[in-house]
Amino acid sequence: MVSPEAEAVPTSALIRLVEARWFRTLVIVVIVINAIVLGLLTSQTVRAAGGGLVGRGLVIVDMAALSFFIGEIGIKLVAYRQRFFRDPWNWFDLVVVIIALVPASDSLKVLRALRVLRVLRLVAAIPAMRLVVSGLFRALPGMGSAALLLLLIHYVFAVIGVQLYGGTVYGGYGDTGYDYFADLGRALYTLFQIMTLESWSHGIVRPIMDVHPNSWIFFVLFVVISAFAALNLFIGILVNAMDSAKDEQESHMSAEEVADPAQRAILDELRSIRAEVRDLRAQLDERQDQAPAARKAPSRTGNETENTGKAVKAGNAAKSRKTAKKNSSA
């Protein structure tokens, strides 16, 4: 039977391999090469170059990259074991590799297209990109509130726009003109185009101003509130979330994460030694507590024996005195 110490030796060696800087750099290089190969494979001219040799060579490189990714996942599974599944980024890598292993038949063309998801492994391989994605997910609740606020602003201005500018065909769009505020749905789309600042002035506002000269107040107010205020609110929420994610990452960075694998192995050994020392101290304290009780027990027994002997001697002396008195009286 293999001892836990002997089993931990190859596991720690695999952890040092996976977490080594050169290995992570190699993974990034393979991902970049695989991304370039996948891009070249989309070109029929490149695939047909050299009588098809270039295309076959690119396919071989793609299969080699996939084999490397499978080996990487296998090493991580053996090294980390249950801890592998605690990291969501490992789940992402595993799903991407599994999708690449599915046969790309005609009925599964979508899965063939999803092979390019392997490029997204750069997000998991580069810590800075992981921080950005973590900040983005952290910002989703706040961005949802901001999106609801922006929707309310659109709804209010759309209702007002239908009431003020609906029912009129304006120039600037097509040959016969266009009613930008004919109903609520058309008004919402018109305001969305204005918010994106896409042809909002000469395409929408100026034709309406030809009929309603004071309408510029309505549109300028909407642009200031939606495009300048609300959209910048999204940016502020995202930046704040990224700062929070960075602070949390730094605060949770322990000595194990800072040290290299060799130092982590030394720390683990020190922890085990400290645990053994605590156990030995507890056993020593128990023995010291039992020793005084063991010493006191014999002393109490000796005192009782001595007192019993004195009582017997006193009884014998009393009997001898009584006997002497009887003899003298006789």
Explained architecture:
The chain has helices at 4-18, 21-40, 44-48, 53-80, 88-101, 109-113, 121-125, 127-165, 184-195, 200-211, 216-251, 255-258, 261-329. Helix 8 crosses helix 9. It starts with a helix and ends with a helix. The longest helix is centred in the last third of the chain and has 69 residues, at 261-329. It is 80% helix and 0% strand. It folds into two domains: 4-125, Voltage-gated potassium channels. Chain C (Four Helix Bundle (Hemerythrin (Met), subunit A), Up-down Bundle), CATH 1.20.120; 131-253, Helix Hairpins (Orthogonal Bundle). It has 13 helices and no strands. The protein is mainly α and 330 residues long.
Relative strand content: under 5%
Query: What class, by secondary structure content?
Result: mainly alpha
Order of helices and strands: HHHHHHHHHHHHH
Terminal Cα separation, in Å?
Answer: 94 Å
- Name the overall outline: flat
Radius of gyration: 42 Å
Helix segment count?
13
In short:
This protein is 80% helix and 0% strand.
Please supply descriptive tags for the structure shown above.
Helix Hairpins, 2 domains, disordered N terminus, 13 helices, Four Helix Bundle (Hemerythrin (Met), subunit A), mainly alpha, 330 residues
Layout of strands and helices, then pairs:
Layout: H1 4-18, H2 21-40, H3 44-48, H4 53-80, H5 88-101, H6 109-113, H7 121-125, H8 127-165, H9 184-195, H10 200-211, H11 216-251, H12 255-258, H13 261-329
